[in-house]
Amino acid sequence: MKLRFGLVQDSPVLGDIEATFRKIEDYTVRAGKNGLALDLIVYPELFITGYLPELWEKKPTPEDEKIWLERLVSFAQRERVGILCGHPSFRAEKLYNAASLITGDGVIGTYAKVHLFGRESELFTPGDIFPVWNTPWGKISVQVCFDLEFPEGARIAALEGAEILLLPTNNMAPYARFHEVYAMARAMENGIFVVYANRTGLEKDLDFCGGSCVAHPNGQWLLEPQRAPGLYVSDLDTGEKKVLDPALDYLKLRKPELYGAIRSFI
Questions:
Q1: DSSP state at residue 241
Q2: Which domains does the chain show, CATH number per domain?
Q3: Distance of alpha carbon 31 from alpha carbon 22, whole angstroms
Q4: Which of 67, 93, 133, 210 has the most CB atoms around it within 10 Å of its CB?
Q5: With 0-12 CB in 10 A as exposed, 13-18 as middle and 19+ as buried, what is 137?
Q6: Is 57 exposed, middle or buried (0-12, 13-18, 19+ CB in 10 A)?
Q7: What residues act catalytically?
Q8: What is the pTM of this model?
């Protein structure tokens, strides 16, 4: 399947969710039916509120999340483009660092970040599943930022049949090179396309470093890591993974019967 993805590399308007939504709407219009005619546009991690909770406009509520998602669905419906956007999410009175995959028909799914970085665990509850969703763009898995640095999540997604791993992130200096390496590694070792959208800008002493990119499972960049703010576009064809060298079919050549020892370290 041939697809066109847009990666938003920018910053939210800190302390002003309404202004951030105006920015989201502007980018979505550019990506949509009368603009670039993309299939899907990807926004960074926690884009609606920003990263640091002390800079949030207010403590969000479940009703806020409902309104956010309804607005994103309306944008997707009007512009005929899919949207992935990071935001705080509520389940059973717990707060998660999440990202929702959306079409004009509604929310396909909301993923809760499993691996929480630094002080994130003081605010968020970790997720406990790596879902793979059937979507208009094929089988897609969504993970968030620090999840990329653990190979298990991407491997589970690939074994469940994911063709594309979408990663909204808030990666900051000095870790830019880490995520460039991990994005390509996850693509190559799992035979999947990795679409990685990071933000830019400052929050207190955090310098978000960009580096949005798209990695092909053959080890090539479809979109090399970018540094400047903007909307970046990448074409990919999920059918191409079928022509990779069978000698490098890592999923098929695994030896799972030998990996049980991993569990002894839990």
A1: G
A2: 2-265 (3.60.110.10)
A3: 14
A4: 210
A5: buried
A6: middle
A7: 45, 113, 145
A8: 0.97
